Amino acid sequence: MAIIPAVYFGLREPRAEPADQTTAASTRLSETTTTRQTEGTTTETSPDETGPSPDTYTYIPDVIEPVWTFSTQDTFPAWVSPMPFVNPMGREDLYTDILFEAKGDYTFEYANMQNTRVFQDVYGDAWTLHVPFDDSKTPDENKQFILDIEHYISAKNGFVMGYYDQSVVFVLNDADMTRWWGQAAVDDDQIVLNIVRQDELKVGQTMIIRTADYPDQIVRFASYNPGDAYQSIHLAYDQGEVSFEISTENRYGSYVRRYTTRDTLYDELTTD
Questions:
Q1: Using the 8-state DSSP alphabet, how is residue 47 labeled?
Q2: pLDDT value, residue 251
Q3: Model pTM?
């Protein structure tokens, strides 16, 4: 389990019409020991603390013969829509519907390996891809997509976060170590893939934020921590007012503890 402090920025100019501002945010680590935490998640367990009931939790057999095959190459014929890194079908025409939202968000729901129900909020560019059932496969074989995609995830050095109902949630890193969250879910006679390229501020990195690029002037991103150090954020801005919120969450089975820090910074007008 990783530490994922979420940092939320709302930038605005209170004295006039919203103006373009420039804000720089960066993070750094200091040596100490902290508890591992997870950002943007809430957990839920049944009264006996055993997690979701059997009718909502998908049993995963130890060995299963795959019936779906996926291409793990990184280059395909050009898409009309933006092409996500997580692209198990490859060609654009193998999806019946493709939806793309710049700077969107999605809540991933799954039961983790401790059988605890988790809700993970992820912000960034988001895709919804629809894969039709294959007429040459039986209904059970088509639904096996959510199991067979594990081979695709493993081949791209990703890992499965967990399963829930008829869906699987997973994480992959691309060549730039950008984190991609994904979910494959059975929906009637199709598979729906929800993919988000997570907006992340890496340790030691500086992010330049221009408020004119965001209609609501709110920027959301996550920052991950290895779990053995404190993490601090340095914020610099050139004018107006900046509000920020940093939230983290500790999870130990059914025990949850949340931390939230909020503050607002203002520029000062002086006369000489």
A1: T
A2: 64
A3: 0.74
